[in-house]
Amino acid sequence: MLIVMKHLATQDQIDCVVKFIEKKGYTARPIPGGERVSIGILYNKGSVDASLFQNLPGVKEVIPITRPYKQVSREFKPEDTIIRIGSLTIGGKDLTIMAGPCAIESEKQAMTIANHVVKSGAHIFRGGAFKPRTSPYSFQGLGEEGLKILAKVRKETGMPVVTEVMDFQTFDIVEEYTDIIQIGTRNMQNFSLLRRAGKAKKPVLLKRGMAATIEEWLMAAEYILEEGNSQVILCERGVRTFVNHSRNTLDISAIPVVKKESHLPIIVDPSHAAGIRDQVAPLSLAAVAVEANGLIIEVHHAPDEALSDGAQSLYPEQFDLLCQKIKTMHSLFTRQ
Amino acid sequence: MLIVMKHLATQDQIDCVVKFIEKKGYTARPIPGGERVSIGILYNKGSVDASLFQNLPGVKEVIPITRPYKQVSREFKPEDTIIRIGSLTIGGKDLTIMAGPCAIESEKQAMTIANHVVKSGAHIFRGGAFKPRTSPYSFQGLGEEGLKILAKVRKETGMPVVTEVMDFQTFDIVEEYTDIIQIGTRNMQNFSLLRRAGKAKKPVLLKRGMAATIEEWLMAAEYILEEGNSQVILCERGVRTFVNHSRNTLDISAIPVVKKESHLPIIVDPSHAAGIRDQVAPLSLAAVAVEANGLIIEVHHAPDEALSDGAQSLYPEQFDLLCQKIKTMHSLFTRQ
Amino acid sequence: MLIVMKHLATQDQIDCVVKFIEKKGYTARPIPGGERVSIGILYNKGSVDASLFQNLPGVKEVIPITRPYKQVSREFKPEDTIIRIGSLTIGGKDLTIMAGPCAIESEKQAMTIANHVVKSGAHIFRGGAFKPRTSPYSFQGLGEEGLKILAKVRKETGMPVVTEVMDFQTFDIVEEYTDIIQIGTRNMQNFSLLRRAGKAKKPVLLKRGMAATIEEWLMAAEYILEEGNSQVILCERGVRTFVNHSRNTLDISAIPVVKKESHLPIIVDPSHAAGIRDQVAPLSLAAVAVEANGLIIEVHHAPDEALSDGAQSLYPEQFDLLCQKIKTMHSLFTRQ
Amino acid sequence: MLIVMKHLATQDQIDCVVKFIEKKGYTARPIPGGERVSIGILYNKGSVDASLFQNLPGVKEVIPITRPYKQVSREFKPEDTIIRIGSLTIGGKDLTIMAGPCAIESEKQAMTIANHVVKSGAHIFRGGAFKPRTSPYSFQGLGEEGLKILAKVRKETGMPVVTEVMDFQTFDIVEEYTDIIQIGTRNMQNFSLLRRAGKAKKPVLLKRGMAATIEEWLMAAEYILEEGNSQVILCERGVRTFVNHSRNTLDISAIPVVKKESHLPIIVDPSHAAGIRDQVAPLSLAAVAVEANGLIIEVHHAPDEALSDGAQSLYPEQFDLLCQKIKTMHSLFTRQ
Fold it and tell me: Chain D contacts of B238, Cβ < 8 Å?
């Protein structure tokens, strides 16, 4: 249930509605919007009687919410969520490009790639320090050393950084070093991790699970918002299907659907969707065409020597060319 | 096995190679290209010894073909296939827009929609006369009467028409009336129908099966080429996955993959991929972004009254707006 | 809408109801059952008013049918359909074993295998004469010669035979030679072929499409019943999923679901589901455990030399052992 | 690489080979088997030269391991792993039945159900105390109180208990109370949780991820074994596909494939595969038919009032009847 207050409702009227909701045994959550305040009713089991609230002073309308998700919903908050990191904004009309290697392998590797991608126009640097790997015998990332290298990259290039957190135990240290906390596809329904992310002070990049429906994905984001962190960026990275010419199948229609259902920004990871370098550029342009809010792209100066995901990493010159195309295409939409 | 002749090879040298191949018990198929002739060796069981042909006069090189498909392959014919229908061309750098209702319901309905879409910039009119329907109790199309209406649309608007053929029995009559013969997703591996299409004198639009791999799809096209008809247009229309927010999942990476593997033009059907009107425009733009050779879009002036697929049909004004966006985006690629 | 007549309703009363339905503009189809007659109302667009029929003489009850399929539905006909081929019956409590090679390759091959499988307890011989193949360059079957070999097998072993029909053109000849007409997975929604099968005088084995829902599959069967042939055997043969350790994923729960929804017999093809010999025996036993009405299993005396599907064909001794296990397990159910 | 020692190899010879492996910079892991000892070489990047080891005293043969998994592999350890919990054994020829409610809701509910299932023949009691739920607003389990109720059930009925662990923070307490630690489908690739489970002193039940390949699943188990806990039970619970008549599609062929690839016991969860009560019994019997080592089945005495998964829970009398069928069918295999 969502109670939409009138444009000119006073703070007293808002407080009054909140108290009334609580007296009925529900939880109230005021949601300040650009033009007016709405008040969500949470934790109701079963339906709530709308007529109870319709005639309270300052109330414009009462909207029953039929979606299982609430706080992530556009019904709840019609305006786009805009996430600010220093002078950067993610969401709305902006197109944010995140780029870098799959894993941080050394300071030299990270700085080489960072210098390339920042020149091409990337806004944010990506790189894994803690790596979730299918095999326990594969390279698992540099850990804290990798985080320190990310901090140096930020210092020297000015780019904020995004890196994945894998568990509760290393959450504090990742949160300390990074600008955006990434939750990977395998952890999309690791609810304890989601709750911890909901208490973080930094934005969270939430990748879609490899066989998750949009509803399950938005519900996972709901866990984060429910704990108090509304700075969530969704990331479509392809789903698992019978198709065998790409590692995953990019669900391109998920972008317009999510943008309609939710106020949260949504970006696309064409590298993990494709799994093959040749498909990364077309998938990136398709994402821009459907007005995704950004891209996260794997780039490596020597993909053949990469310790992970080499086959899907772009060469710096490919990334540079792609950035030009992305910007040209994006300008079509911003001009409109 | 593909034998590539030298740029200046004479007709005699070509004939000589063909005869030599046939003497070895294989079938030879000369493939004229823009710059040179190649000769394919067909029906070989197991591998053929390349050294047999390498030293024949006029031979430039001998390429073993590792793909199961041959005549549809870019190894076989490196240049894009361009299909001509009157003054229209499909393939290469062109973007062809096909539009119209799911089914022809009446002359008035067809003419109303046709007049709308031609004004918006559609090049080809689509509309079903014989409809494959999941239920035997659903509207099955107007049959020959529908074909006659299509012919009138062509006469009055100047647009060529495309319509589906469902079986051998009605193939002749469909071929007589239409400009492009469509083979639907459910018939992609109806091999008898493919062979009949291979003997047709008109271009064939071959939709991807709803759970077909790209290899199976190209092999289906191979059946048509193998019978002598090289005028095939491929059409990606989404594949069946667990995803439930769209009717099918548009496999957007299939476009760059097919364009690399094959010389045949490939278009996108966003209407059947989406199944929902709201997603049609974004999917169309994504298709343009990955440089598909065209689009086939369902449009209806009164979707709520449509006898089939109303929920995914655009209103004429939506189609008009979409055409403008498509053309703006496409111009980015042609300018390059 | 289904009108269930009273146990003792007279033929006059039945005729009267039929006429009344027809006067209202609908089509009536009487369905004789073991205990009573029901009358289906077909071709109604939208819902029919039940109260019109409730008070007619001899009417017990009027059941609105919410499923899109009608004649295949258990609501329509509660008793199991039993198909008779000579002294054999398919359906009900029986377990019918069909076995033989993927394709008929020669009389010697067919007779060798047939002699093996009949000794092991197979009831029906399978073997392809017209083969649908992904590649136009693969072995396409012996055609009519294959049908003649099947006829000899029947004559010498006494087993009825089942073979696939691929198209309208060869339907008459296949129908002439075979005892059961198989429609393959790629033709499940070849509606013209289904209609032709509906006019056949012999039972039809309808394989599930490789990405078909149960509803689509039952609707395909509905096409056959709608044309007048109620002798349809359904065959689950695995569906296409992301799983890569088997060729397809056997949808084992489809068997109890279909048996609940429909009165038609349903058998399982473990060979095409598995694609790998080792999995054929376990999948066969799983099918028996869920009370499938039969199995269709590929067997070859020299799988390594088979012209198709060798990797999934059982050796005769494996089939023999499997038959013993099948019969032991099946006896558990018949004893109950 | 696996070094298989001779039947009569001495401990000195084994120690000698281990030291030799370590001198080469690899890690050696001796694996005692029924008849002989094998020694695995772990953490080798790239291939290891087999000839280095072939001539050491006591070595019978050196087997290169081509699978990405090692310790879970049958090549590594040919004999079935048998897990002992008190007098119960899981694995080998035994069929272990685990049953109980989705979630522990109260002591009364748990005891009621436990008394039913133990009488029907269940060996182990299941029940969730910490529940992973798609929605943050759904019932999340009783937590530690639920664990205490499980302990009482064990005390009063004699059945060991299995319950899910969701995170690192609650691992210690779950491990303290339960007999088998369950890792759920959403956490199959929560690698930190897997590592923690690898240090546990109790057996781990590892459910398959809802879109995991068998290789990924076995690699997840490898994480647990790699940390030192070889007591892992695998659990197939259906995978996500396009199929919509069941919640998931039970991948029945996974059982024989896993039994061939790995020495670990594998059980089946028909309740989550089906999602619908009617399909639970047939899927259970199919699992027995493919020789799964056990079943884990949801049972509730009042499913309509269950706080989760009511629709897929069996009534006690249904479970009782099913147990009888399971045992009759299982006896077919043990008699052989």
Answer: none
Closest CB to B211 among C215, C223, C240? C240
| C-alpha distance from A187 to closest chain D C-alpha (Å) | 6
Instruction: List residues bridging with B96 in a β-sheet.
Output: B294
Among candidate residues B209, B300, B222, B201, the one with its CA nearest the CA of residue B248: B209
C5 in Cβ contact with C59 (< 8 Å): yes
Angle at which helix D144-157 crosses helix D107-120, to 10 degrees, equals: 40
Quote the minimal CA–CA distance from D139 to chain A in Å. 10
Contact residues, chain C, for B168 at CB < 8 Å: 167-169, 192
Angstroms from D90 CA to nearest CA on chain C: 21
- Residue range A51-80, pLDDT digits in tens: 788 888 999 888 776 677 889 999 889 999
The ipTM assigned to this model is: 0.86
Neighbours of chain D (3+ CB pairs under 8 A): A, B, C
Inter-chain residue contact C211 with B216, CB threshold 8 Å: no
Choose the closest CB to A136 out of D134, D216, D223: D223
**Partner-chain contact C250 D245, CB within 8 Å:** no
Predicted confidence (pLDDT) per residue in C86-96, tens digit:
999 999 999 99
Please name each of the domains of chain D with its CATH number: 2-63 (3.30.70.1140), 83-335 (3.20.20.70)
Can you give the pLDDT at residue C234? 98
pLDDT in tens, B56-98: 899 988 877 667 788 999 988 999 999 999 999 999 999 999 9
DSSP summary character for residue B299? B
Of A104, A106, A100, A127, nearest to A182 by C-alpha is A127
8 A C-beta contact, residue B146 and residue B127 = yes
Contacts of B257 in chain A (CB under 8 A): 245-246, 279
- Least confident residue range of B12-21, C238-247, C282-291: B12-21
Q: Is there a contact between A162 and A104 (Cβ–Cβ < 8 Å)? A: no
Q: Which chain D residues are Cβ-neighbours of C254 within 8 angstroms?
A: 243, 245
pLDDT tens figures, D193-245? 999 999 999 999 999 999 999 999 999 999 999 999 999 999 999 999 999 99
Residue A248's closest chain C neighbor by CA? C242
Cα dist from B153 to B113, B114, B148, B178, C333, whole Å: 10, 7, 9, 11, 63
pLDDT band at B267 (very low <50, low <70, confident <90, very high): very high
Q: Provide Rg for chain D, Cα atoms.
A: 21
Contacts with C287 from chain D: Cβ below 8 Å: 286
Q: Which residue of B has its CA nearest to C183?
A: B190
Instruction: Specify the DSSP class assigned to residue D186.
Output: G
DSSP A226-251: HTT---EEEEE--B--S--SSSSB-B
For range A212-229, the mean pLDDT: 96
